[in-house]
Amino acid sequence: MSTSITRRDFIKISALFSALGSAGKLFGEASSPSGTKAYSIPGKKRKIIPSSCWQCVSRDTIICRVEDGKLVKIEGNPKSIRNRGKICAKGQAGINQVYDPDRILYPMKRMGKRGEGKWKKITWDEALEELTGKLKKLKDKNSPEKFMFHYGRMKGSDSKIVKNFLTAYGTKTIGNHTSICEGGKWTAQELTWGKHYDVWDFENTNLIVNFGSNFLEAHTSHIQAAQRGTNALAKGVKMYTFDVRLSNTAAKATEWVPIKPGTDIAVMLAMANVIMKEKLYDKEFIDQWTNVSVRELKKHLKPFTPRWAEKVSGVPAKKIEKIAIEFGKAKPAILVTYRGAVAHYNGIQTERAKFMLEAICGYLNMKGGTNQAVGPKWKYPKTKGHTKKLKIVDGFPGTVAYPTHHVNHQVLKMIKDGSYGRPDIYMTYCYNPVFVTGECAENIAILKDESIIPYLVAVDVFMSETTALADLILPDVTYLERWTWDDMASFAMIPEFYLRQPVIKSLGEARQFQDVVCEIANRLGLDLGFDSTVDFIKKSCELSKIDFALLKKEGVWHDPSAKPKYHQHTKEIASADYESDRILFDEETGVYWDWKKSKAKSRDEAVNTGYSNMKNAYKGYIGQQIGDKVYKGFKPDKLNKSGLIEISSDFLKKKNFSAIPAWMEIPEHRNLNSQQLILTTYKVNVQTHSRTANNWWLTELYHNNPALLNSKTARKFGIKNGDSIKIISNVGEIVTQTKVIEGIHPGVIAISFHLGHWEYGEFASGKKASSGHKCVTDCDFVWWDTYGKNPNWIIPNKPDPIGGQQRWMDTVVKIQKV
Amino acid sequence: MDGYSSENPESLKASIYRFLQKLFIEPDEEFLNFLQQNSKELEDIGIEFNGSLNLENLQMEYTRLFLGPKGHMPPYESVFLEGRLWGNSASEIKNFIRGIGLELEKDINMPPDHISIEFEILEKIISSKDVEINGMYIDFLKRHVAWIFDFLTQLILKTELKFYQTSFAFSKVFLKEEMATSSRSI
Q1: A570: which DSSP letter?
Q2: A689 Cβ contact partners less than 8 Å away, ≥ 6 residues apart
Q3: Domain coordinates in residue numbering, chain A
Q4: What is the pTM (predicted TM-score) of this model?
Q5: Measured between beta carbons, which residues in chain A are less than 8 angstroms from residue B56?
Q6: Residue of chain A whose alpha carbon sits nearest to that of B66
Q7: In this structure, what DSSP letter does residue A19 have?
Q8: Which of A30, A79, A123, A813 might form a disulfide with B103, Cβ 3.0–4.6 angstroms?
Q9: Which residue of chain A comes nearest to B58, CA vs CA?
Q10: Which of B69, B94, B100 lies at the smallest CB-CB distance from A104?
Q11: A590-627 pLDDT, tens digit each
């Protein structure tokens, strides 16, 4: 090899390279003449593009400032009635998602062994040719259900478009991720007051009692809840927070009440007991809107005294009494719950106990109380089709009574088992099961095994732990390059229609997956009724009578004459709406229902089977008879409950659970020995569960998650702050550091989610997804070198027996100093 | 010689920049044909081109080096210097392109500080008949060649293909020489 190039060499080279012809593929002539001084900065006029966030499920509205095609700043959209111009740190750091050099920008095909990391870039045409070839084969064999689609985050039109495609294709083997979030909370709500999602009217309440929700830091409606909750606290509204850990929400409370894990329900039952005893209940509300009487309640609650609850939960009886009386007298108060209370063996009954407590005080669906969520009701094109499914999304038969939000953390186990069928094509979309469900080691083993999962396709923005095992990677765009109409619940109690639109041109060859499914449908000859994401959104706008151009310009729209929707259940149904041939009256429940919306084949079948037993009868629910009137009531969803708040549930009775919420002991927590602790997990305010750990700014803020231990516990085990410990459960062990604090229950060890990635990029894992560039973790500004630990390695994938919620907070562990 | 003459070193350099521009974009059939037809001449300037090299090997190595999805080196100045896509260098390059009266084609989906775009800019500058633009050559080189140098050094260690290794080495030598002679000539 020559070490220098002489003029002579140039001549040779010139002759050689001139064969390449002209380069000029990259440039066209500019419309303006040359002459501007190079490097001069043109007028830095920033374009403002409204859109919506998608760092987490809150999906707040945003405005993006774009300078010469480059996104430079994200803020909250001040025109929004939901997040009212505010967004969180995660939202502001969104710039780092879109410009992350570790993003996947090209379709990739696996070349080496699964997980080995050898890839070939292929064209979209090649990728879709391969995928549609396999899809077509399955469809031709009349086995479309062997295509399993498993999604993590998919909402609004993103979800509708993909589900339309799956319907047209013919598969209903669709997995979601709700059981690792708060599925149990939703099932409990469906069993109790019907349609799920409770919105707390913080700004009009007089008292907040919080069980296990860190809503000032992390919540499905984070900024909506946090800013309204903060306003309440600033006004002097008291808040009691029951939590095993002094979260920042607990720290902001009037009082943090430490509680033994999984015993929240005991305190709730005792509070209800006190309220009944002290006659602080709302008899009228109980009589009219629930299916129990005061007498029944008193009888049922009698054994659950504060003294009893003290023994179970460790919360002093006097404290329970005091808070119960304040709650009963507050008129109104709100009771907040989330995973801390719900992600347990007894989580469903805990959530139902919350509703019982609020119902007996009459605090539901009212100003200052807990309200049924309102959100925009988008109308959209619906694709018709006949579907089949593998029975692998609701857990092993007999293990979960009412898996209304599915049991996604059992999917891989069921595929491994094989008795219920296996998908030939397993596609993940914005979902990283390896990392986000328990038992990581087993997840990896299953997904690596080509005899169990023959073809794994990952639709992803980043190289997640699951995507690293894929056979084919389809690069999706980030939320800042995406079109979606969206529909999050509104804490303003007025529905807000809003849009996500690309704020920059998508990078590389990343394509919005919704456009990709349109193309796949086209290749398979399926008619979806729309041909692109934008087409779908425009058609949805037309159907919903929403001005698309206005939505593009403003990002949000709500009816200016709308009033907050309190007391939704008290709306009277006009007789014309329930007096028709299709509508039946069910004597047993008092429900009017449209039998044609159920699965009944004839009117006779519907009449004979009855509302409660007819499949999908809830879909035809019209209203609830109370006295001589018919009200909207508490409309059911997923289950054929009545329009009343079912404090007593026949559904549960049928499956041998207590009909009225009652104490349920967590089996693993019985007879704990002095060496055992209960592992709990939590979230912080600057990271999402798994998708932001490679976000530079966020990871600078939060990059280590030592196990939290109470100082008493640490002393007992001879552990000092910062010591390394081994944590052992019955599914594995991890080694991590400790942080010794006072603000945690002595029987608990806590590790946050978010961290401990071994893929996902350099900030997340310390391993470069992309490499070579100087200025990432070895750069001067990177002052941290920790990546945290994922607790999921040692958490078993276990569903609660009623709804199938992953029992995040029940794991019993031992610890050893390393 | 297709309009390039030994009497005009600027057009010789332009042709080298054209080669460099193509070296850093995804190899295609046309590029492979070029290599195959000129393997002997390539060897003369130190670029080792093994005739048995096929397009798939070339594309796989290109993917591994530049596209990922893992362990790659995204060929962008702002990734290399600032650790992110579309950093300050990208905006600077975008302004520069506009400043010399050009505009990126609309369907280019890569940020403007891609190494190939930088090489093409150098080619455009050096071929320009506009004296003012022509005079920007050394300035642009000074501003942007440093990262390319470091980038190439790492690439030489990283690549497993002799063709890329020797091509990157050639690129380095050429740029080094260019910096030296151009600085002297000012």
Answers
A1: G
A2: A436, A683, A753, A754
A3: 108-182+388-476+511-533, 198-372, 568-643, 668-817
A4: 0.93
A5: 120
A6: A770
A7: G
A8: A30
A9: A120
A10: B69
A11: 999 999 999 999 999 999 999 999 999 999 999 999 99
